[in-house]
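Example for tutorial group B:
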């Protein structure tokens, strides 16, 4: 099986003569030069053909090219006329130059080339040079050389568009100054736009205003300097007519860089394209594909854009686009997606949503990928079953080149016999080059996006804790614009005595530095809260930490600490949005408490406390500005809309409430959302405390206090002995090994008693691994570990708290009431 190009040039010079005779029959056609270059591709088996002519500043400038993107072969847009490039040499010497892979490697060892070897031919033409590149290691054979020499004799390089920059405008030429938007146009272009010379004001906006609105974005992508790269651009667009349908025009232009006080200029030609091919070879289709691929971010988006651009114009029955990963082809899009529409061998490899298979299972496809050229097989061609059933009426395989390698392949199949014309091959070749570059870019986007998402997931809580007397849910949406990770975060921190801290914050900017700082702030707030500090002290400590980090970034934060037993809460704001409360009657309230500056702005800032009163059924909502701020409304209006949406929600299930609040959110910024519904505790704990004085009878006094409390709570005698032992050992340990104040706390909830002894020493007791008979200490912690169900230590402000928990039996008497014990 051979490619269309290979089959073409083996027929020799007669086919060249026939093709050139047809093209030369219309010498005024604006497409004549491009069609001649396409002949070089088809008849000589080349990958790209480029025509150069002398331009401005002693440069040999690209006039036109056909085939694969010339950058894949290292061809530039300009060459110095006195340089040693093949194009410049043949222009000066007037003799063709044939270079094989070895000669090219010796001439330019640092040139960026494809993986496989290729050959280059440079031939003189009237007024310029013709450069043709093919991927045949043996070089161009005599038949191909004869074809190229005949083509070079027939083609004449037109005056390059750069000459327009010097004021030498032809009737179909234009020159646009990129800084001012002033444009010089020839008379023929004005006639195509329906303007007279005296009615034209020299502004490009005047011409753009006469185009069909649907075509304006594609035109703007060319006339805006930020989106243009050095090199040629070609597209088709429509202009409105006084009567009748719009007229199709074709623009061919390139950006000429400025310098020495001269602005950059877009120069080129505009010609009537209304009589050119209206169907699959319409350059507008490639133009629209390029526009779609420029906005396609993911591999799936690229695949869908290719399918939309090719299947309908080619009237194909199925299209598959697969990404090349190592030695496997992983299908990213199948159209139609129904598995029954594809070969049985494909369905055997249907592992997940899409199939994948080793390239070696399809030798014909593997050969096409190695060759790197579009290959076409008509109906009846003997192919392996995995490919034959894709296109029984005809099959086209488009390798997708990108960055010197193959990024994947596109398979297009027809069920009924399909007649492949030369125009279709040009469309397929151009589409393959665009799709390959976009696929490579999208693959990098997907990989980086996954890395960013993984980093963000690692910095945020994996799951929220189970709360006593409440339920919390959280949502995080990363920004869809760009790939940089954001600095929004949330946290739910369980605290002793059934307290809970709700935290939400936002670090300035979107970068890895912001994400790193976000992780530091979340960790710092959690650590300060676990030490037992009140909310204003927690936020003040975090503020000083951020100021000491000497970063240029700042952070905003809202910290709400809730007593889940009583429903009382305190709020501290550091430059952040206030909490929004949804009361049990459905009324919403934006809590306008006083706040301090953002964290990291002032080292000695004040962060006032604001009280909140929660009743069972109240929902506390905390969010970041990405959800409520937009370009068309200020933050107060957005916060009011957020409160209204919360008012209309049903708080029975907070998951759907959070999803509804995020529905339709603008994704230009990260969004964090934290909701907590306060339900109140079904059974409130019983608590009693005792201050231990440093007297010889301190341990005995602590035991007597504990015995009275346990009796009032109805704790049985068997359980009392174990509790008294734990109290005695913990209090004695604190008296012997620490200085300062000691406090004993007893808490009973659901038949589980917690004994906690707090002191001013940060040093935690350690259970000894072994105790000898002669040891005088260390047995207290061993006894505590033996009789309690769990024990440990937690830091508190300036010291620690050693605690132990014991599971008790049912009460001996009626249920006690809070505060029934006598306080000493």
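The residue assignment follows.
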């Amino acid at each position: 099986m051979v490619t269309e190009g290979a089959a073409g040039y083996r027929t020799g010079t007669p086919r060249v003569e026939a093709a050139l005779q047809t093209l030369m029959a219309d010498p005024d056609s604006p497409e004549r030069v491009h069609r001649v270059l396409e002949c070089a591709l088809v008849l000589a088996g080349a990958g790209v053909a480029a025509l150069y002519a002398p331009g401005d500043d002693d440069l040999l400038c690209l006039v036109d090219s056909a085939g694969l993107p010339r950058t894949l072969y290292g061809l530039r847009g300009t060459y110095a006329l006195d340089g040693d490039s093949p194009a410049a040499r043949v222009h000066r010497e007037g003799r063709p130059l044939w270079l094989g892979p070895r000669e090219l490697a010796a001439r330019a060892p640092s040139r960026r080339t494809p993986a496989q070897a290729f050959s280059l031919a440079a031939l003189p033409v009237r007024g310029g040079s013709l450069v043709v590149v093919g991927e045949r290691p043996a070089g161009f054979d005599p038949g191909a050389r004869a074809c190229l020499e005949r083509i070079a004799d027939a083609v004449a390089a037109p005056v390059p568009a750069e000459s327009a920059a010097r004021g030498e405008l032809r009737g179909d030429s234009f020159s646009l100054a990129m800084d001012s938007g002033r444009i010089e146009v020839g008379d023929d272009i004005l006639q195509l736009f329906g303007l007279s010379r005296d009615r034209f004001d020299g502004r490009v906006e005047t011409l753009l205003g006469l185009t069909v609105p649907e075509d304006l974005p594609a035109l703007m992508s060319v006339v805006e300097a930020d989106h243009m790269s050095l090199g040629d651009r070609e597209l088709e667009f429509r202009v409105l007519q006084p009567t009748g349908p719009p007229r199709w025009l074709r623009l061919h232009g390139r950006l000429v860089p400025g310098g020495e006080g001269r602005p950059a200029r877009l120069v080129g030609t505009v010609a009537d394209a209304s009589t050119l091919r209206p169907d699959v070879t319409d350059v507008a289709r490639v133009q629209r594909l390029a526009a779609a691929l420029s906005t396609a971010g993911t591999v799936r988006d690229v695949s869908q854009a290719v399918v939309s651009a090719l299947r309908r114009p080619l009237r194909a029955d199925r299209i598959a686009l697969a990404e090349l990963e190592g030695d496997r082809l992983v299908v990213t899009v199948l159209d139609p997606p129904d598995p029954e529409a594809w070969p049985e061998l494909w369905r055997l490899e249907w592992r997940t949503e899409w199939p994948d298979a080793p390239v070696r299972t399809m030798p014909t496809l593997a050969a096409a990928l190695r060759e790197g050229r579009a290959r076409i097989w008509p109906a009846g061609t003997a192919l392996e079953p995995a490919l034959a059933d894709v296109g029984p009426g005809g099959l086209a395989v488009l390798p997708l080149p990108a960055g010197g390698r193959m990024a994947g392949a596109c398979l297009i199949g027809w069920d009924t016999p399909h007649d492949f014309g030369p125009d279709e091959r040009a469309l397929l070749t151009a589409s393959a080059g665009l799709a390959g570059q976009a696929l490579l870019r999208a693959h990098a986007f997907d990989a980086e996006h996954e890395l960013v998402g993984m980093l963000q997931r690692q910095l945020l809580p994996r799951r929220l804790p189970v709360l006593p007397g409440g339920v919390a849910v959280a949502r995080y949406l990363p920004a869809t614009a760009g790939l940089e990770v954001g600095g929004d975060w949330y946290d739910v921190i369980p605290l002793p005595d059934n307290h809970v801290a709700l935290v939400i914050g936002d670090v300035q900017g979107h970068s890895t530095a912001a994400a790193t700082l976000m992780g530091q702030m979340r960790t710092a707030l959690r650590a300060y809260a676990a030490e037992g500090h009140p909310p204003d002290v927690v936020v003040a400590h975090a503020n000083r930490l951020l100021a000491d980090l000497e970063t240029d970034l700042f952070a905003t934060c809202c910290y709400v600490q809730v007593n889940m037993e009583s429903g009382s809460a305190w709020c501290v704001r550091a430059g952040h949005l206030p909490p929004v409360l949804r009361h049990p009657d459905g009324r919403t309230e934006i809590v306008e408490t006083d706040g301090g500056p953002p964290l990291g702005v002032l080292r000695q800032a004040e962060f006032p406390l604001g009280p909140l009163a929660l009743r069972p059924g109240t929902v506390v909502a905390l969010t970041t500005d990405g959800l409520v701020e937009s370009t068309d409304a200020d933050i107060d209006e957005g916060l009011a809309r957020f409160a209204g949406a919360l008012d209309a929600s049903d708080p029975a299930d907070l998951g759907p409430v959070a999803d509804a609040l995020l529905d339709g959110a603008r994704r230009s910024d990260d969004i964090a959302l934290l909701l907590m519904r306060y339900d109140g505790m079904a059974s409130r704990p019983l608590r009693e405390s005792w201050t231990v004085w440093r007297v010889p009878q301190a341990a005995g006094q602590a035991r007597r206090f504990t015995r009275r409390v346990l009796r009032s709570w109805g704790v049985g005698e068997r359980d009392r002995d174990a509790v008294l032992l734990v109290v005695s050992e913990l209090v004695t340990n604190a008296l012997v090994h620490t200085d300062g104040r000691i406090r004993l706390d007893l808490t009973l909830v659901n038949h589980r008693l917690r004994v906690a002894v707090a002191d001013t020493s940060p040093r935690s007791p350690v259970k000894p691994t072994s105790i000898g008979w002669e040891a005088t200490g260390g047995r207290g912690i061993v006894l505590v570990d033996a009789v309690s169900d769990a024990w440990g230590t937690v830091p508190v402000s300036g010291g620690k708290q050693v605690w132990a928990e014991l599971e008790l039996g049912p009460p001996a008497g009626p249920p006690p009431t809070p505060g029934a014990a006598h306080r000493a």
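The mean pLDDT is 78. Compare this with the pattern of hydrophobic and polar residues in the output above.
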